[in-house]
Amino acid sequence: MSEKGQTLYERIGEENILKLVDDFYAMLEQDELIRKMYPEDLLPAKNRLKLFFIQALGGRQTYTDERGHPMLRRRHFQWEIGTEEATHWLKHMHAALEKATFPEPEKDAFWEYVYGAAQHMVNK
């Protein structure tokens, strides 16, 4: 929460979160290294990430209602994720964030969150 009492979700706005994820997946789709970790149909994964970010940033709890506790590292342990894979994921997230139109302080806070989460996923 900020000093204004608003969550990052409220400060960024749901439409901006949805667009950010769409932009991210448009770039990820072209990535030869990490695209193979995803199913052929990206829509379910894209929708899960949207719900996850909405919840993680302080919005509604639909992700947990539908899928249970996020358990990010455990859910991703089936894939070998090294520094290179995390870097590719972050590169696309950063590019999507650069396209975003919400204010820089919120971009910085979002980046801090996803950077830490990506580092947490590294398992090799």
From TrEMBL:
- Domain of life of the source: Bacteria
Query: Any idea which GO molecular function terms this record carries?
Result: heme binding; metal ion binding; oxygen binding; oxygen carrier activity
Q: Does the keyword ATP-binding apply?
A: no
Q: Which UniProt keywords apply?
A: Heme, Iron, Metal-binding, Transport
Gene3D superfamilies per the UniProt record, alphabetical: Globins
Q: What InterPro entries is this protein classified in? A: GlbO/GLB3-like, Globin-like_sf, Globin/Proto, Hemoglobin_trunc
Q: Which family does it belong to?
A: Belongs to the truncated hemoglobin family. Group II subfamily.
Protein name in UniProt? Globin
Q: Which organism is it from?
A: Roseivirga seohaensis
